[in-house]
C-alpha cells in the first residue's frame, strides 16, 4: 500500500520511526544512506564552451571564411583594401559572439531559484526531544513540527493535525488551501491526498506533525526540479530561419564566386586577379550587417515590450511569441487575480452580491458577523490579516459592508478538519456568548434547526433545505467555493461537545478567485488573431470551466483531467487537442509538459504561461515560456523566456503584437539590405564580362554594408505594428523569412533599378572625363577614383529612397506614416552625412579610395531615385488592386 493509504501508526511503522522520532544516531546513519535533502544540480555546460559557440555557428563560419579570404588577398595583392575588409568582418564576428555569450550567461538559473523555496531550518523530534536542524539534514523517518507560516521541507505524511491547512498552489496549481488531517486516504493520487504535505508548499493555518517519507530529488518538488533542469535545445522559429538564410546566402555567394572565378580564367585574367574578383563577388553577396541588425532590432523590440510590461529574457523569444499559434495558460494568478473574493450570497431564498448589502446590512448582520469572527486568522501590526486567503476575503467582505467590527475575546473553538469540513468559534460580546460556524453545507445544515430571514428566525423546513441544496449546486457549477454560515447564542456552562447544535443558518456565501478585468478583451484579440487559448491548470475542473466562460474563452469545452490523461496515449492526446474548445484541469507538472509536446508534434508554436513551480517544466519545454512577474515564483521566472511585469494576461496580446511586427520588420530590412547586393555585384560582373574598369571596390562595398546601410536598416527594425496585424492568423510554420516574393522584389526589381543608376553614374563620370571603351585606368588615377565615388554615391542615394519604400510591400509611402519613425529619419540623415564625409573629406578619400565629385552627378542621381520611387509606387498600386 502507498503511504497515504496507511494509518498514522502504520506509516510510522513502514518508516521504522515513531512518535518520538528517530534516534540521533539513526538519523545520522540515514543521512549517509539517503543523502542530503536538497535539489541536486545537473552538470552545466562550461562557460568557455558557451563562449566558443557564439563564434562557430554557421553564419559566423561564413564570416570567418570571408575574412580569411580577405587577408589572403591582401597578402598577395596589397593596397586593395582587403585587410580593412577582413578586420571589419572580424569586428562583426566579435560583436555578435560577445552579445550571444552575454545572453547565454544570463539565461537558465532555475536551480538556485528552486532552493530559495525550501526552508533552511526546521523543527524535528529526535530521540523524544525537539531540536532545530538544517532542512538539508532531514531524512526519511524524521518527525517534523509545522505551524502557520512554515514552508514544508520535504514530502511528509501528516500524523497529527490541528486546523492544518496548506497552500499547494506552487506545486499542484490548486487555488484554494488544502485542509489536512492524519487519517488514511482513499484517493489514488498522492498529490491530492489530504494527509500529504509536499516540499515547497506552505502552511497557511493551524499546526501539525508529519513524518518525512521522501527527501531530495525523490520528492515531487525534486522531480519538478529535474524536469526544469533539462536543457532547452530547440531553436526558435527566427533562429531556424537565420540558419536557413545562412545556408542560402553561403551557397549563393560561394557558388557565384566559384562560377565567376572560372569565367575570369576563361577570359584570360590571371589567377590572383580572378581570386580577388571572386572574393569581391562573395563579399558583395554576404550581408555582413545582417546579424548585427537582427540582434539590435530584437534588442530594441525588447525595450518596447518592456514598456508594455513584458520583460524578455532571451532575444529570439521576441519573434517567437509573434508566431505563436497556441497559448497554454495557467488559471490561478494568470487569468485570475489570485485573490479570493466573495462574489455571491444566497440569503433568505434570493441571490445577492456584497454591493447589494451595502444599503441595508442590518437584516444580514448575523451572516456578516459569522464571516467576521469565524476564522483562524492573525492580525498583523499594520492591521492586515494573515492566514487562509479565503478567510481573509470573508473578513474583508464583512468589514466592507458593515464597517469595522470590535475585537471580541475568544472563549472556545472547534477547529476545522478535513472530515468535519467545518469550524466554529465561541465569542463573548458585551452581553452574551455567541457561537459562529462555517463550513460545507452538507455538514452545517444537519446541525441547524432554524434559518435567518429578513423578518427574523424561522424553522428550517424541508422546502428551505431543498432550496439551499439547489443554490449550493448552482453556485458550485459557477466555479465558486460555497460555504454555509450559522450561529446561535450559548448559555454559560454548556459542554464543548454540545456547542455545534441547534444552530440558525444565516445563508450561503460563494467565493471565487475573480478573473482580471482585461483578460476577456485579451482573449477576444487572441481569437481574432487566430491564436488558440487553452487553460491548463492544476485547479478543479468546475472552477476552470467557470472562469473560461466568464472571460469568453469557451461555452461548452471538452474537459480533460489529470486522471483522464493517465489513460491517454500520445496519439489519443493529439486527437483530443483537435477539439475547438478544450480545458485541462487537475494536472501535474509532467502532464502539462506532455500537452506542450503534443501540441508541438501537431505543428503548433506553443506559448505557455504560469507562475508556480509546477508550471516551470512546461514553461521551459514550450517554444516560449511566459512567467508572472509579481505572483510568479522565482522558479517559474527563471524557467521562462519572458516575464509579465504586471501579471496581466492582456500584456501577452501587446507582446504578441510586437513579436509579429518583429518578423515583418526583419523582412523589411532584409529587403533593404539585399537590394544593395545587386548594385554591388553587377559592377563586378560588368568588370569581367565587358572588360571595363572595376566600378566599385571591396572597401566601398563595406562602406555600404557596414556603414551607411546600418542605421536605416535598424530604423526599419523598429517599425510599429501596422493596423490590422492582430486580425491576421499566425504565419505558417513553414513560411520562410526569405521567400520568393521578397527575393524577386529585392533582386530583380529594386536591385536592378539601383544597379542601373550606379552604372549610369559610373559611365557618366568616365565619359565626362574623356574615357573611351578599352582604355585601362590605373587604380590611383583621379578620373577612376571619381567614377567609383559616383557609383558608391549612386547606391547610397538609391538606398535613401529604398528605406522608405521598404516600410511596406503594399502601402504607399504617402499613406500618412512618413514622419512617424524618427530612427529612419535619423538613419537617412546619418547616411547622407556619411557619404558626404566619404566624398569630400581627405580622410574619407584616403580610407575609401574616393575623390570629390561634381554637382552635376547629384543632379543625375536625384531623378533616378525619384524614378525608382515612382515605379515602386506603381507596383504597390497594382498589388493593392
TrEMBL record:
Gene Ontology molecular function: any one: P-type ion transporter activity
Gene3D superfamilies assigned to the protein according to its UniProt record, in alphabetical order: Calcium-transporting ATPase, cytoplasmic domain N, Calcium-transporting ATPase, cytoplasmic transduction domain A, Calcium-transporting ATPase, transmembrane domain, HAD superfamily/HAD-like
Annotated ranges, domain Cation-transporting P-type ATPase N-terminal: 2-75
Chief localisation class: membrane
Source domain of life: Bacteria
Transmembrane segments: 51-72, 84-102, 242-263, 275-299, 742-764, 784-806, 818-838, 850-871
Keyword Cell membrane: yes
GO cellular component, one term: plasma membrane
Membrane topology value: Multi-pass membrane protein
Name of the molecule in the record: ATPase
SMART domains membership: Cation_ATPase_N
Family listed: Belongs to the cation transport ATPase (P-type) (TC 3.A.3) family. Type IIA subfamily.
Localization in the cell: Cell membrane
Swiss-Prot/TrEMBL keywords: ATP-binding, Cell membrane, Membrane, Nucleotide-binding, Translocase, Transmembrane, Transmembrane helix
Amino acid at each position: 500500500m502507498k503511504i497515504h493509504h496507511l494509518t498514522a501508526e502504520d506509516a510510522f511503522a513502514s518508516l521504522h520511526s515513531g512518535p518520538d522520532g528517530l534516534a540521533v544516531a539513526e538519523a545520522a546513519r540515514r543521512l549517509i544512506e539517503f543523502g542530503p535533502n536538497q535539489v541536486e544540480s545537473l552538470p552545466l555546460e562550461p562557460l568557455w564552451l558557451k563562449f566558443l559557440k557564439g563564434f562557430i555557428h554557421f553564419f559566423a563560419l561564413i564570416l570567418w571564411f570571408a575574412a580569411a579570404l580577405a587577408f589572403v588577398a591582401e597578402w598577395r595583392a596589397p593596397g586593395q583594401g582587403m585587410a580593412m575588409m577582413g578586420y571589419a568582418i572580424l569586428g562583426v564576428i566579435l560583436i555578435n559572439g560577445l552579445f550571444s555569450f552575454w545572453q547565454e550567461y544570463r539565461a537558465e538559473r532555475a536551480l538556485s531559484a528552486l532552493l530559495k523555496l525550501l526552508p533552511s531550518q526546521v523543527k524535528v523530534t529526535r530521540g523524544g526531544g525537539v531540536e532545530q536542524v538544517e532542512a538539508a539534514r532531514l531524512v526519511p523517518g524524521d518527525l517534523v513540527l509545522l505551524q502557520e507560516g512554515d514552508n514544508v521541507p520535504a514530502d511528509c505524511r501528516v500524523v497529527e493535525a490541528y486546523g492544518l491547512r496548506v497552500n499547494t498552489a506552487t506545486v499542484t496549481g490548486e487555488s484554494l488551501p488544502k485542509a489536512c488531517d492524519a487519517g488514511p486516504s482513499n484517493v489514488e493520487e498522492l498529490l491530492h491526498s489530504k494527509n500529504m504535505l509536499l516540499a515547497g508548499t506552505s502552511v497557511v493555518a493551524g499546526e501539525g506533525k508529519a513524518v518525512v517519507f521522501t527527501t531530495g530529488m525523490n520528492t515531487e518538488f525534486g522531480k519538478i526540479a529535474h524536469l526544469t533542469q533539462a536543457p532547452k535545445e530547440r531553436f526558435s522559429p527566427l533562429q531556424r530561419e537565420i540558419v536557413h538564410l545562412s545556408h542560402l546566402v553561403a551557397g549563393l555567394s560561394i557558388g557565384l564566386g566559384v562560377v565567376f572565378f572560372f569565367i575570369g580564367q576563361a577570359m584570360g585574367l590571371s589567377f590572383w586577379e580572378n581570386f580577388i574578383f571572386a572574393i569581391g563577388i562573395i563579399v558583395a553577396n554576404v550581408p555582413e550587417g545582417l546579424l548585427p541588425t537582427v540582434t539590435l532590432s530584437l534588442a530594441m523590440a525588447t525595450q518596447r515590450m518592456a514598456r508594455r510590461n513584458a520583460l524578455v529574457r532571451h532575444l529570439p523569444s521576441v519573434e517567437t511569441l509573434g508566431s505563436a499559434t497556441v497559448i497554454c495558460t495557467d488559471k490561478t494568478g494568470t487569468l485570475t487575480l489570485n485573490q479570493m473574493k466573495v462574489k455571491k450570497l444566497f440569503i433568505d431564498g434570493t441571490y445577492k452580491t456584497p454591493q447589494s448589502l451595502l444599503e441595508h446590512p442590518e437584516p444580514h448582520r448575523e451572516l456578516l458577523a459569522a464571516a467576521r469572527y469565524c476564522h483562524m486568522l492573525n492580525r498583523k501590526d499594520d492591521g492586515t490579516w494573515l492566514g487562509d486567503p479565503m478567510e481573509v476575503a470573508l473578513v474583508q467582505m464583512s468589514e466592507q459592508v458593515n464597517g469595522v467590527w470590535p475585537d471580541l475575546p475568544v472563549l472556545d473553538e472547534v477547529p476545522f478538519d478535513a472530515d468535519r469540513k467545518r469550524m466554529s468559534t465561541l465569542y463573548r460580546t458585551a452581553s452574551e456568548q455567541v457561537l459562529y460556524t462555517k463550513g460545507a453545507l452538507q455538514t452545517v445544515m444537519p446541525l441547524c434547526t432554524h434559518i435567518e430571514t429578513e423578518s427574523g428566525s424561522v424553522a428550517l423546513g424541508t422546502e428551505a433545505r431543498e432550496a439551499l441544496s439547489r443554490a449550493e449546486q448552482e453556485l458550485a457549477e459557477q466555479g465558486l467555493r460555497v460555504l454555509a454560515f450559522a450561529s446561535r447564542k450559548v448559555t454559560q456552562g454548556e459542554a464543548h461537545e454540545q456547542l455545534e447544535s441547534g444552530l440558525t443558518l444565516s445563508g450561503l456565501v460563494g467565493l471565487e478567485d475573480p478573473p482580471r478585468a482585461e483578460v476577456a478583451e485579451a482573449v477576444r484579440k487572441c481569437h481574432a488573431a487566430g491564436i488558440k487559448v487553452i487553460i491548463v491548470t492544476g485547479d478543479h475542473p468546475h472552477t476552470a470551466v467557470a472562469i473560461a466562460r466568464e472571460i469568453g474563452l469557451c461555452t461548452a469545452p471538452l474537459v480533460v483531467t489529470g486522471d483522464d490523461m493517465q489513460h491517454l496515449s500520445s496519439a489519443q492526446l493529439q486527437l483530443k487537442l483537435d477539439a475547438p474548445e478544450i480545458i485541462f484541469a487537475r494536472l501535474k507538472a509532467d502532464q502539462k509538459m506532455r500537452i506542450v509536446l503534443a501540441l508541438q508534434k501537431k505543428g503548433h508554436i506553443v506559448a505557455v504561461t504560469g507562475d508556480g513551480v509546477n508550471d516551470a517544466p512546461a514553461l521551459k519545454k514550450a517554444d516560449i515560456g511566459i512567467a508572472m512577474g509579481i505572483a510568479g515564483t522565482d522558479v517559474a521566472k527563471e524557467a521562462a523566456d519572458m516575464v509579465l511585469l504586471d501579471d496581466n494576461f492582456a500584456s501577452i496580446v501587446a507582446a504578441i503584437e510586437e513579436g509579429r511586427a518583429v518578423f515583418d520588420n526583419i523582412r523589411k530590412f532584409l529587403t533593404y539590405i539585399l537590394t544593395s547586393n545587386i548594385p554591388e555585384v553587377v559592377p563586378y560582373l560588368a568588370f569581367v564580362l565587358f572588360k571595363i574598369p572595376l566600378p566599385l571596390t571591396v572597401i566601398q562595398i563595406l562602406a555600404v554594408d557596414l556603414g551607411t546601410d546600418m542605421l536605416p536598416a535598424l530604423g526599419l527594425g523598429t517599425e510599429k505594428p501596422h493596423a490590422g496585424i492582430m486580425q491576421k492568423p499566425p504565419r505558417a510554420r513553414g513560411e520562410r523569412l526569405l521567400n520568393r516574393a521578397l527575393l524577386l522584389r529585392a533582386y530583380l526589381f529594386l536591385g536592378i533599378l539601383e544597379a542601373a543608376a550606379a552604372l549610369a553614374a559610373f559611365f557618366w563620370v568616365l565619359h565626362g572625363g574623356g574615357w573611351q571603351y578599352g582604355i585601362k585606368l590605373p587604380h590611383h588615377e583621379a578620373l577612376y577614383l571619381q567614377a567609383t565615388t559616383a557609383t558608391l554615391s549612386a547606391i547610397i542615394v538609391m538606398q535613401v529612397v529604398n528605406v522608405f519604400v521598404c516600410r511596406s510591400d503594399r502601402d504607399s509611402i504617402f499613406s500618412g506614416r512618413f514622419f512617424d519613425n524618427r530612427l529612419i529619419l535619423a538613419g537617412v540623415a546619418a547616411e547622407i552625412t556619411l557619404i558626404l564625409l566619404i566624398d569630400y573629406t581627405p580622410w574619407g578619400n584616403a580610407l575609401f579610395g574616393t575623390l570629390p565629385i561634381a554637382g552635376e552627378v547629384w543632379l543625375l542621381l536625384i531623378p533616378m531615385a525619384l524614378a525608382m520611387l515612382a515605379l515602386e509606387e506603381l507596383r504597390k498600386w497594382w498589388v493593392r488592386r
